[in-house]
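Open question from group meeting: does this chain pack into something compact, or does most of it stay loose? Before anyone orders reagents, we agreed to write out a predicted structure and look at it together. Recording both the input and the output here so the notebook holds the full record.
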Amino acid sequence: MPVGNSDGEDFEAELDTVSDAETSDAEHSSDDDLDVLRTVLSVPQPDAPMHEVHKALKTTQQARNRTLKKTSVLDTKIITQGKTYALFYHFWVIPGVFPTTPQPDVDPCSPTPWTSPEAKLNGAMAELYQCVPKDLHKSMEKYTPFDSLFCAAVSAERSNIVHAIKGCAGIIFSMLKLDPLLFTSQTDIRKRDNKDLLDLLKKKREGDYIRLAPVLFARPDAMTANEFLKSPVLIKIVSVEMYGKKILSGKVKGQKARGQRCNAQCVTEGLIAGAAVMARFLLTHDPEFTAIGAETKINYQADYDFYLERLFKCTPWACSIMNYFNEEVFNVTSQSRVPLANDSPIVSPP
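Structure tokens returned:
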């Protein structure tokens, strides 16, 4: 499983210090701290000696730097969690999930969150409480910048992930015997009418782009229901996310990739759903990976949720998909999703 990064610091205490400095100083600071506060709050008189003015300015700057440093540590932690969320849980943050309320009594891994829009929102909120470390829960509820920092990190990491996969798309799709030059430019006009690509995106090359695209099956030319999402293309995409593009050439050494930095030991439903929408995007001529494709009008976000919902239903098919990916990517038997919270044990599938 992926394990959230944490250095064990109490960020809640730091946040309280930043947001309630005067109260903290008055109740808990030493005499020296009180002297510093008085110095900061006192404005030198117009006729004050220059050395007193310099001293006041220096003390004020030092106090400001300490506050900024504490805020920076918290913000960095939030951004890190946003990146992890994008990779393992959701490519998009559901509107309305922030500000969070006290943790909903919902199992985000059950089919329940998909029964209604309200249930979906509660499920997403419960999932946040699972994947975000406990020392950030209070910040998630009360720290105003949490929303913007987290969402910006998710958006940026989604773009970074797609960029990384796009950079080795020619190799990822090589087993399908496609022209590798088609992947040198995402907007290559030839992609729009290329018969080989359309065979992988549409039913008999005609009509709308379908979410049950042939490329997502083990054998695009002989699709069967039990082989949906068992595409070797998806295995390669997830492998690159976990180990970097070096894995495509059989190498294991080198700079740590996203999955390795998170100490990932098994797949999540979000990883598989993300690979599915990226595989389809890379075969299209959509210029950017957005919620809805600019050229194809494919609703990538809705299709992502569609794949995610099916995987969460824990049907025999869904369990077989989790097993398949864990065996192919991690060489282990599947254990479905586990929390990413930093206080969770490192769990390997049995």
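Observations to bring back to the group:
The chain is about 50% helix and 0% strand.
Residues 3-34, 334-350 have pLDDT under 50 and may be disordered.
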